[in-house]
Design a protein that fits this description.
The protein has three helices and no strands. By secondary structure, it is mostly helical.
């Protein structure tokens, strides 16, 4: 339950980070580099990130898939 609450609290920050990185680097095919940047930011700022990273990574994947499928990142243009 603690991880669920943590993720719920992190979602707005994750969305902001994902969008900021995508805006700064709107280059297709650099997903792994962008994910690595998000991971480094989170692990730098949040002490417990290493233990919860697998869940955070899955949530990021879900958000990116949602943004791609709905055109938020302009992939459907």
């Amino acid at each position: 339950m603690q991880v669920l609450l943590l993720i719920a609290q992190l979602i707005p920050a994750l969305i902001a980070m994902i969008k900021a990185i995508e805006e700064a680097l709107p280059i297709a095919g650099m997903g792994s580099e962008k994910l690595a940047a998000v991971r480094q930011i989170i692990e730098t700022a949040f002490e417990g990130a290493k233990e919860t990273w697998p869940v955070i990574e899955k949530v990021i994947g879900i958000l990116v898939t949602l943004f791609n499928s709905t055109g938020v990142f302009g992939k459907n243009e």
